Amino acid sequence: MESTMKSLGATTFLLPAPVLLAGSYDPQGKANIMTAAWGGICASQPPAVAVSIQRTRWTYASVLERKAFTISIPSTSQAAQADFAGIRSGSKVDKFASLHWSAVKGEYVDAPYVGECPLVLELALLQSVEIGSHVQFIGEVKDVKVREDCLDEKGRPDVAAIDPLLFAPVTRQYWGIGKLVGKAFSLGLSID
Ligand SMILES: Cc1cc2nc3c(=O)[nH]c(=O)nc-3n(C[C@H](O)[C@H](O)[C@H](O)COP(=O)(O)O)c2cc1C
Question: 26, 111, 121, 145 - which has most CB atoms within 10 Å?
Answer without folding.
Answer: 111
